[in-house]
Structures are given as C-alpha cells and as structure tokens.
Amino acid sequence: MSTAALQQRLAAAIRDGADATGLLADDFALGLEAYRHAYRARLVAALTDNFTVLARALGDEAFEVLGQAYLAARPSRHPSIRWFGDGLADFMAAAGEALVPHPSLVDIARMDWALRGAFDAAAAAPLAAAELASLPPNDWAGLVLQLQPSVQRVALAHAIEPAWRVLREWDPESGDDPPELPEPVAHAHLLLAWREGGETRWRSLEPLEAALLAGVAAGETFASLCERAAGLLDDAEAAAPAVIGLLQRWLADGLLQSRAS
After folding, report:
1. What is the pLDDT of residues 54-73, one digit of tens each?
2. Averaged pLDDT, 209-214
3. What is the C-alpha to C-alpha distance for residues 39 and 72, in angstroms, rounded to an integer?
4. One domain for residues 173 and 204
5. Residue 2 has pLDDT above 70, yes or no
6. Are residues 246 and 141 part of one domain?
7. Rounded to the nearest 10 degrees, how much is the dihedral formed by the CA atoms of 40, 48, 253, 199?
8. Which of 8, 84, 148, 164 lies 20 to 30 Å from 201 when distance is taken between CA atoms?
9. What Cα–Cα distance (Å) separates residue 105 from each residue in 52, 81, 101, 102?
10. How far is CA 108 from CA 58, 105, 113, 229, in A?
11. Do residues 181 and 56 share a domain?
C-alpha cells in the first residue's frame, strides 16, 4: 500500500473512526484513540469559538453534548476548521429537545454564525455620498446598488437579540453567575449583520427595510426599489422619500460598496 493510501486510511481512522485493522501495531491502539479524542475535542473547541453566545446559553456540558452529536452526524469536510459549524443551526432545528431545549437557541446559533461570517468576509470600497451626488438626475432610475460582501441577512423566528446581547457582554471567567435572560418571544423577522471599521454590527430590520435590502441584493434598480416601497406603504408619493431615507442610513452604516469596485 502506498504512503498516500496509508495516510488516507489513518486520517479516516482518526476523523471518522474507520477500521484501523492492520494499519498500526497493537500497542498503538491507545495512541490512535488519543488522536481520535484530541481531534473531536479540537473541533468542539472550534464550535465554541464560532458560537460563543450559543455556548454560553447552553452551558459547557450541554454544548459539549451538542457539539459531539453534530460532529457525529456531520463530520468536518472543509480544509479550514474556521468553517466547521456551517450546518449547526439546521442540525439543531431538527435535533429535538434533548439537545436543544428551546427553539430560540437555533436563532442564537444563526446570529452567531452570521456575525462570524460578517467579520471574516472580504471588503470592498464603500459607496460615498459624493458618488451619488455626482450622478445625473436621469441616471437615478436605473441606478443599481451593491451590498458590501460582509452584509448578512438572517431570518429569525424569535426576538433573541436582547438575550444575545446580555450573554455576549457576560464574561464566564469573571466568576459571576450566569445572567438572568429575557424570555425570547416568537417573532419572525430579519436580522442584519455586517462589518464596519473592523468591528461587527447588527440590528433588527423593519419590514420595509428588509424588503428593500432584498431588492438591492437581487440587483433591482432604484426605480424598482421605489415601486417596492410604494406597494408596501400603499402610498406612491411617500415611496421615493422612504427609499432615499434608507439609502442615507445604508451609506452611514457602510452597507454599500462603491460603484467603481
């Protein structure tokens, strides 16, 4: 057997628990199990890093159980450990109460992952107000805006943001007891997450802004965005001012990329 084939078998034995018969001498069996344990522990540690608030919400023991169950069901296949956990929220949504005692925990996982994705995303030059000010009036109708690569829009089923904020600010190493958390109530909405100046930001979206950002993401023109707003507001005259007001906010938040990018 070639060296490459041996390496592949050893990796499978460590990563997936594949049969290692004939691969190692008998006195290396304990060493193999140690490697398997270390591999699983490292991946669960990566989950803890990627889902900091979720880990605090569940507690160390429950998060360890969840991480091991996820690893068993969905072994890591990405070459970078950074991306281990991309399917955790979906796994949790179908896992049942034994692993996920409250459905709002799924939303906490989605928010954690969105913010990590925003932090690691590529960057583009931001759109400046001066670029738009120099645009000829006749070009506004066909104007197409582009979101920064870091912008994430996440569908949530519960109002978990207050609890998320409390847990994010709590330091488990401080010795303080876990904080009292507000009860997450059912509330279907979109969360916006992005990176600005090297730091992640987030806020909940009202329906109008959520719909217009969906239009921007779909490549719709400024005229189409105004039509969307008119339909939602049931007021054609209020549509353009509403879109311009949100456009000013997007510019201030750095959500848009330069047209020259």
Report:
1. 999 999 999 999 999 999 89
2. 98
3. 12
4. yes
5. no
6. yes
7. -100
8. 84
9. 12, 23, 8, 6
10. 11, 5, 9, 30
11. no
Q: Across the strands, what pairs with 194?
A: 201
3-state SS assignment for residue 77: coil
Shared-domain flag, residues 1 and 63: yes
- DSSP result, 82-129: GGTTTTHHHHHHTT-TTT-SSTHHHHHHHHHHHHHHHHHS---PBPPH
Q: Given 41, 67, 101, which residue is the final one in a domain? A: 101
**Rounded CA separation 195/215 (Å):** 20
Tell me: do 16 and 50 sit in the same domain: yes
Q: Do 96 and 128 belong to one domain?
A: no
* Per-residue pLDDT at 220: 98
Asked if residue 132 and residue 92 are part of one domain, the reply reads: no
CB 204 within 8 A of CB 164: no
The reply to whether 75 and 134 lie within a common domain is no
Paired tokens of 96: 């049942």
Residue reference for tokens 């005259």: 237
| Both tokens assigned to 92 | 């949790």
- Tell me the pTM: 0.85
Number of structural domains found in the chain? 2
| Tokens 């938040």 found at | 253
Nearest 10 degrees: Cα torsion 227, 231, 235, 237: 0
User: Which helix or strand (DSSP H or E) is residue 139 part of?
Assistant: none
Q: Which domain holds residue 90?
A: 1-101
Extract the tokens encoding 229. Answer: 């707003």
For 177, the enclosing helix (H) or strand (E) is none
How many angstroms separate the CA atoms of 91 and 31, rounded? 31
Cα→Cα distances 127→13, 26, 232, Å: 50, 63, 26
Tokens, residue 106: 């799924």
